[in-house]
């Protein structure tokens, strides 16, 4: 029971805060690649801010308060844009 | 007037398929051949590396030249990092009495790595043969610039023909 309560509390806490997500992407070699990825996430309702760093091949997402974006959606959007997700880290 | 021109508008249905309209002109003055195509491009294979990307594209199109129908088919491969660019492209144009092919190779070097939303400059050289129009190799040194969603290239062939390419991604 204690375990369930802990899990529920964690889910609730996660649900009310914005989250920062760092995604490592392979294949991003030019500004048009970066723009394609930015465009994909810009139509995503839960995403507040997108930063693309070509030097580190990273995409940084910040979600809106109380919203989240699952890994499966991130992978789907980046694959649809033509690139490959290497890792997803959440803060 | 350069011995060829190529204009196209493509709409990406997905990252693998693009559909559009294309115009080619081979030759000049009274020997010019102008043709329009409904064009379909397919990304057959993409390699996504940590610092590079490689692609193989297939080109196809049906069109018309002075009310005669013709088709084009071809293959293109490229590999690029943020400092090196190479590509090789071959297109065949047949039908309606036309028998042409175009082979193009490109090599580019970027002296400075630019960040996203910064101007990126490339020094490039293009070699091209259009069978039946320019049978000897046309060498064109050029500059390529990337800025946001716009790519433009300016160059002049060793024979003095100017070249201008403009590509805008929406």
What attributes does this structure have?
heterodimer, A: 91 residues, alpha+beta, four-stranded antiparallel beta sheet, 3 helices, 42% helix, B: 170 residues, mainly beta, eleven-stranded antiparallel beta sheet, 11 strands
Structural notes for this entry:
- The complex is a heterodimer of chains A (91) and B (170).
- By secondary structure, chain A is α+β, with helices and mostly antiparallel strands.
- Chain A is 42% helix and 30% strand.
- Chain A contains three helices and four strands.
- In chain A, α2 packs across α3.
- Chain A starts with a helix and ends with a strand.
- Mean pLDDT of chain A is 84; it is low at 5-15.
- Chain B is 0% helix and 75% strand.
- Chain B has strands at 4-12, 17-26, 33-48, 52-65, 68-81, 84-95, 98-109, 120-131, 134-147, 150-156, 162-168.
- Chain B has an eleven-stranded antiparallel sheet, with no helix packed on it.
- The relative contact order of chain B is 0.12.
- Chains A and B meet through α2 of A and β3 of B.
Structural class, judged by helices and strands of chain A? alpha+beta
Low-confidence stretches of chain A: 5-15
DSSP strand count of chain B: 11
Number of alpha- plus pi-helical segments of chain A: 3
Oligomer: heterodimer
> What integer is the average pLDDT of chain B?
92
Element order, helices and strands of chain A? HEHEEHE
Helix content of chain B: under 10%
What's the Cα radius of gyration of chain B? Answer: 16 Å
Which geometry of chain B do the CA atoms define? globular
Strands side by side in the biggest sheet of chain A: 2-3-1-4
């Amino acid at each position: 029971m204690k375990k369930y309560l802990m899990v529920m509390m964690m889910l609730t806490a996660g649900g009310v805060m914005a989250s920062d997500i760092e995604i490592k992407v392979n294949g991003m070699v030019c500004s048009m690649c970066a723009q394609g990825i930015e465009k994909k996430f810009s139509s995503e309702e839960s995403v507040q801010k997108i930063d693309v760093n070509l030097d580190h091949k990273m995409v940084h997402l910040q979600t809106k308060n109380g919203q989240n974006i699952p890994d499966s959606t991130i992978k789907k959007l980046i694959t649809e844009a033509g690139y490959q997700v290497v890792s997803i880290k959440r803060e | 007037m350069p011995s060829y021109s190529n204009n196209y508008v493509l709409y990406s249905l997905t990252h693998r398929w693009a559909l559009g309209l294309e115009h080619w002109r081979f030759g000049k003055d009274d020997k010019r051949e102008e043709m329009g195509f409904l064009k379909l491009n397919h990304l057959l294979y993409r390699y996504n590396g940590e610092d590079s990307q490689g692609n193989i594209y297939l080109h196809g199109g049906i069109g018309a030249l002075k009310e005669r129908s013709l088709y084009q088919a071809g293959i293109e491969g490229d590999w690029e990092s943020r400092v090196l660019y190479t590509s090789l492209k071959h297109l065949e144009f047949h039908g309606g009495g036309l028998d042409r092919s175009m082979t193009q190779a490109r090599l580019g070097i970027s002296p400075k790595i630019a960040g996203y939303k910064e101007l990126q400059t490339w020094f490039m050289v293009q070699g091209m043969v259009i069978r039946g129009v320019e049978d000897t190799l046309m060498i064109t040194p050029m500059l390529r610039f990337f800025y946001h969603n716009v790519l433009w290239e300016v160059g002049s062939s060793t024979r003095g023909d100017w070249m201008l390419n403009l590509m805008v991604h929406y």
